[in-house]
Amino acid sequence: TRGDSWWQRAVVYQVYPRSFQDSDGDGVGDIHGILQRVDHLAELGVDVVWLSPIYRSPQDDNGYDISDYQDIDPTFGTLGDLDELLAALHARGMKLVMDLVVNHTSDEHPWFVESRSSPDNPKRDWYWWRPARPGMEPGTPGAEPTNWASFFSGPAWEYDPATDAYYLHLFSRKQPDLNWENPKVRQAVYAMMRWWLDRGVDGFRMDVINLVSKDVRADGSLLDVPVEEGPYGDPGVATANGPRLHEFLQEMHREVFEGRRDGLLLVGETPGATVEDGKLLTDPARGELDMVFTFEHVSLDHGPGGRFDLVPLDLRDLKATLGRWQAGLNDTGWNALYWNNHDQPRVVSRYGNDREYRRESAATLAIVLHLHRGTPYLYQGEELGMTNAHFTALDQYRDIESLRYAAAESERGRLSEEQLLAQLAAGSRDNARTPMQWDDSPQAGFTTGEPWIAVNPNHDTINAAAALADPHSVLHVYRRLIALRHQDPVVQRGHFRLLLPEDPHLYAFTRTLDDEQLLVLGNFSDADRTADIGPGWDDAIPVIGSHPEPSTPAHGGRVTLRPWESVVLRRT
Ligand code: TEU
Has this prediction a pTM greater than 0.95? Predict the structure, then answer.
């Protein structure tokens, strides 16, 4: 049983500050830049802005490596600028949610600087320090305390000769993992969170929050994981959704959020979470999170080699996966809905068709996602139907994960250069990180200088100015979808039921609330497709569709959809 929460009627927009708008010509986006573009967000109608990290950081992982949680990186501006942004958003009725990256800090954070200084330092135990594997020469390959791989290639342990010990970093070696087993670490994190709430922010998107409880034995040992292709294996089973995760989140809730004003948003990023985990994490009665980002639906096209080894999507898998999450969280918990973020290739290039049917497939992906039950998130540029970068050379890439992967693969030597470049072009996070395309000017209106990463040449046609002027653009579909979410109780709360689960091309479902019903039909293919929807829809009213002139609805229980067309029909 769930109370009625504001975020059940809300849509969230993610800003990746580095790539949104540069105001000072240094080629990197900044807070003043966001301020110049708040009206774009207001006109779109979004309720919340989630800001990727703008804290002080060496920028090893574009700000997900934080050296001071309570200051702004000079690249992006000052605390005063952030206050100004907060006020500008609030003045337009929008909220601001901050990224909270507390599974790890930067290695340049004073906590880690102290921690590494000596085994006797009071902060030594704030991170995961462990000796070499018994009988092995410290610092040599295979001597790491466990056989965990870093998510950014290579081992997850770095040897520090100064104190003859290893520290854990599930991401880059400049992102040491905090030891949440230590209550002082947790209290320091909670104090920092309270400081931001006192400053007026409206909640947090919690980075890899389900990695904070590691599966540690009573004697302090950590466990090896199964390895498919040596020497290191996916650390997931030993680090994700660990034994104390729920305890930590409930403690955080008590220490940070209890007694605060209504209107906060708490969303966790939880790679590897199952429907059962998702339900526990978002059950309001348990006092943990409002909703979580899950990964199953954005991993369906991963081949055996993972995110860089993409295989074609089978639409039946996508429907089954999202359908399982819809059903699983129907009575308890709540879904966050997304296709894109700063870590994912652009959905129109991935699950859509960014060549012949870019506008249509982007619109259909939008309509299908936003008609699900949950809170939709869109990522900057998604509202324009922005595509993958289609980079063709290694030196165009900036992302640490991509560069580490390329280095590791080159060393292994099993891929040709052409194959490697094809993998990066399909899977790299940089696909999401090319500058926002505002107009058709040389740097797309993003900067007057040299952008830190290349602007996509297709900004000559795909850009916000052009989209605004074209009533049939993807942008206008998003505006209508956001307005629909705000006003339509069936979209907000209607029960979800998947139709045609075995159809390889059509995405079909109903949403039902009391005696009102919506039918959502999406053609995920390049050919005309006819859907058998059964009787009773002949007099249904079209609500929204991907195409300027919607296909004639329902005659004799059938609807024919053009390539990548979608329609939503309402009956009472
Ligand atoms: O991402 C964590 C995550 O699970 C992955 O999507 C990750 O990006 C990686 O590519 C796995 O292949 C979060 C942030 O969103 C990401 O940008 C950070 O790099 C990461 O945590 C570390 O903070």
Answer: yes
